[in-house]
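During the reporting period the student researcher (J.K.) took over the structure-prediction task from the postdoctoral fellow and processed the backlog of single-chain submissions. One of the processed entries is reproduced below for the supervisory committee.
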Amino acid sequence: MMERLRQDILRMQGQRPVTAQLNEKVKLGPVLEAFPHKEFPTGAVHEWLSVTPADAAATTGFIAGILNGLMQGSGACVWISRQDQLFPPGFAAFGLEPHRILFIRLKRDKDICWATEAALQVAGVAGVVSELSDLDFIVSRRLQLAVEKSGVTGFILRQKPRNLTATACVSRWQIKPIASYYPGSLPGVGVPCWQVDLLKIKGGKPGSWQLAWKDHAFRPLTDTSIAITTPLRKIS
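J.K. obtained the following structure tokens:
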């Protein structure tokens, strides 16, 4: 009875139960413990905050890792941005095929809002990513209502937001880059690593983690397959 009541409350908040198969594909490692039923909420809108360009780039990579799971099979993604700064071939590092991502570039906020809402209404789309700095409760509620009908998962990237008022999004994240680890004794570029702060999650528990991307999955930096016990070189 209590579990059924919990699921009804989550549906009222705009969250849909996630199938076990999809949950296995979204490999968020220890972060899954923070979500209701230990499953990444799909069919919902997630809010992402970035203060610096480095934070924005790190957030883009982190979301690409999540899309790796959502786009398994025949799914496609819509990515709406204000500036032409994305490098599509770079998504291959996260297991994504660029030709399955529809990139849309728009300048005006109202055009971005309209395109985002329209894309979120298309059932069958694996995910919609939209770069929108300003987001109020009314707009976020419209977007949330759209995904509740279509089942699409939305990602709103807010770079240098002017206000942080309440929104209807099911979660609020902040991602920052941290020094990467290189799995070996030779110098080189290591695997991507992030400081992940889940600031808000409806029905779950906020938390912070340090994660790395390896073998198409998010792994904690404490994982022995990621960490290196000795430094590559000493920096004076």
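The committee noted the following: Residues 185 and 232 are 7 Å apart (CA to CA).
J.K. will present the remaining backlog at the next meeting.
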